[in-house]
Design a protein that fits this description.
Blueprint lengths: L1 H18 L8 E15 L3 E15 L4 E4 L4 E7 L6 E5 L2 H18 L5 E16 L5 E15 L2 E17 L7 H5 L3 H19 L1
Antiparallel strand pairs: 1-2, 1-8, 2-3, 3-4, 4-5, 5-6, 6-7, 7-8
Helix pairs in contact: 2-4
Length: 205
């Protein structure tokens, strides 16, 4: 009788463990594919909005460091709930400001315009990832900022609001990541959309 009880208890414990959700560990390298909604407005000119696909490669190291491969952005990450299924990602504001300023001005110059962007001030920078039962991660990144656009002596204040939602699939050790090969990242997509709106503003100014 005791043996039957022990066997029954062992089977019950196994069933309980099988019924529990199995989450992916954040630590590792992940291919990021998703969409970015953006609204960009320039005072006295107008605004544009849209949704575009984005890709990147995120790496979460066990020591708490974070890297977004496409733009070589670095930061930190940490779990934010007791189950260790959700994490905050922090890329320092000054790093984002430097990248967005440099990238946008480079794109404007390549397009042949004399406008410049400066005084970027971040108003929102919230980046989180959540572990899923199927072994993937879900990511959300809300990034918004104000800026000044200078053109032919005029100062045109601008506002940029973006929201990214993505699914992340883990990259096997030693495997090449399509996102890192394409070098097509989220920050460069934001800079590109801002540049497009600035070009339209200049043409309509």
């Amino acid at each position: 009788m005791l043996a039957k009880y022990v066997r029954f208890s062992a089977v019950l414990v196994c069933l309980v463990f099988l019924a529990l959700p199995v989450y992916a560990d954040v630590v590792g390298t992940w291919d990021v594919t998703g969409t970015m909604k953006h609204t960009i407005s320039i005072k006295h000119v107008g605004h544009s909005s849209g949704t575009d696909p984005v890709t990147d490669t995120f790496t979460f190291d066990s020591n708490g460091s974070f890297t977004a491969t496409a733009e070589a952005a670095t930061g930190t990450w940490q779990y934010i709930n007791t189950k260790d299924t959700k994490a905050d990602v922090l890329i320092p504001d000054n790093q984002l400001i430097t990248y967005l300023t440099t990238k946008t001005n480079d794109m404007i110059q390549q397009a042949g315009y004399s406008a410049t962007v400066d005084n970027i001030v971040l108003t929102k920078n919230k980046n989180t990832v959540k572990q899923n039962k199927d072994g993937t991660l879900s990511g959300k990144w809300a990034l918004s900022f104000t800026c000044n656009i200078h053109y032919q002596g005029y100062n045109l204040p601008g506002k940029v609001k973006t929201n990214m939602k993505a699914t992340m699939t883990q990259v096997a050790a030693g495997a090449a990541s399509p996102a890192s090969i394409e070098e097509e990242g989220i920050l460069s997509a934001i800079a590109e959309k801002l540049t497009d709106q600035i070009e339209d503003a200049i043409l309509d100014f």
